[in-house]
Here is the input.
Amino acid sequence: MKKVGIREVAQEAEVSTATVSRVLNNRGYISQETRNKVQSAMSKLEYYPNDLARALYKKRTYTVGLIFPSNVHPFQAELIQDIEYLLSQQGYKVLLCNSLNNPQKEIAYLTMLRKNQVDGIIVGTHNKHIGDYNGSNLPIVAIDRDLGKNTTTVACDNYAGGELAVQLLINRGCKQILDIRGDSSIKLPANDRTVAYQNLMKKYGLKTYILEVPFVLPAEEKKALIETYLHDNPEIDGIFAGDDLLASIAIFYLEAHHKKVPTDVKVIGFDGAKQTLLYNPRLTTIRQPIDQIAETATTKLINKINGKKEKDQLKLPVSLVLGHTV
Amino acid sequence: MKKVGIREVAQEAEVSTATVSRVLNNRGYISQETRNKVQSAMSKLEYYPNDLARALYKKRTYTVGLIFPSNVHPFQAELIQDIEYLLSQQGYKVLLCNSLNNPQKEIAYLTMLRKNQVDGIIVGTHNKHIGDYNGSNLPIVAIDRDLGKNTTTVACDNYAGGELAVQLLINRGCKQILDIRGDSSIKLPANDRTVAYQNLMKKYGLKTYILEVPFVLPAEEKKALIETYLHDNPEIDGIFAGDDLLASIAIFYLEAHHKKVPTDVKVIGFDGAKQTLLYNPRLTTIRQPIDQIAETATTKLINKINGKKEKDQLKLPVSLVLGHTV
Here is the structure.
């Protein structure tokens, strides 16, 4: 398809390319009649000023790469949508990169984003052994992930979230509480939830039950791990799940096996994305402040793009959504 | 932040810029030693060849704009993820544009995408009165939306989906069947579902009950419309919902008001996104072939970008997911 340039616009409007350029840049004297002729030629030919050329010239693309595992997972979906909205309000575009938990794909995206001169990256993946973010001179903000020096990490207050959830289960009488957590070999802010769980179990003299369900596993494997664990440990009467999907899997399994939630087993999730609660208004969960996480990550990234130093680890407050599963 | 160019690479490697250029383009004779020096300088300085300059020169950006209402809605989320995956496999990048059902935002995105010289657009919004797609010389594929001439529309076989759902409700004994549909004033392929519903009601001599719930409404308003309707029409014993969210809202309302699903009222949804079924494995629904829709839309768009004519209206086959709500 042939793209239209200012030459074609000038021809159509029967003026010089210099005149078209003056109209575009609003520079010099142009009569209203000429301006109208040029503008109607532009709309007739569907000419749009080339922002790519401008980006190349200014060495600023107003483009941000988002590398997340998946825009389908409700927490990430809402985060991506909020970030995209906030960036669009600031004149930035978003290149969407779903790593699908594939480290090769993640590295390829990182290279692609650099070749396309993005101004910065927001990353929220959970893959191990990706050193490519380290020491980068590109502004990067990580969400729920510790990427080492030079990278700002934004997360919720995971310790407080763990404490809130587990204390609620204890208050409601649970004695055998299972903590379903992510892969403990990855350094993630969410690991603090399990620290809170362990501290509370110790404080109340309760036995710990911990099941690791790596975030990167396919849903079917997560389901199998949880079902096997609950089958083998029928004494479990409380569950603190790593996210609302894991909580939903547990609830569905329990109810299919004639255990009532919350009468027999109490279950609390994590994340509290709007979409999840729309479909599952019963669920009790710890709500991450997704809007604040998005806003903080966006602001910090734009600050870094503008040359400000941002090295903080930011922890944002969680809250309890009291449904009917605890 | 200063971006590194081939001049800096040449300086670091102690060679000329022409040599760096020859290494980059794999042209002319270069000793292995020089090649190594240049490559280690590139990786030390984090230099990445500028794909923006190449795009500008070749008048081909390998960028596609996706304009959808929201990357959070499970059907659209899965579609966006599948499309992004398929495009990335073909070397295309994706600019994500969530219109959030705001026509001004949609028009602004369309202008932004054109200024950024995207090669094509895939659009799946439901706003009325957006004429800006008409007669465009830019390759465009619409999903579930009729954008008029020059635009390829990809959708599921909505008539067959409606027939499958309503016939199932009739077979299971429903007599007062409610069709919850979208805004009838927008020309959408999904309108065929209601045509199928009406034809079957006529065939079996049953009264029609139709509730319009525009897709663009906030979830709370959708909820209020459905709850009021069910409250005012307690005889309803079967519901064919426009999507799985509307089905979930109805089920939750019915159960909170002491009607059993499926004993008292049978409910069937539409879409069947993987994420929805993970969280709601009980739900009976009509599954759209999201993977096929994504693949068809992507293929047709790339064909159009490559200058092939594509004017078809494509209808892809649906299937029944038999859960426990019918």
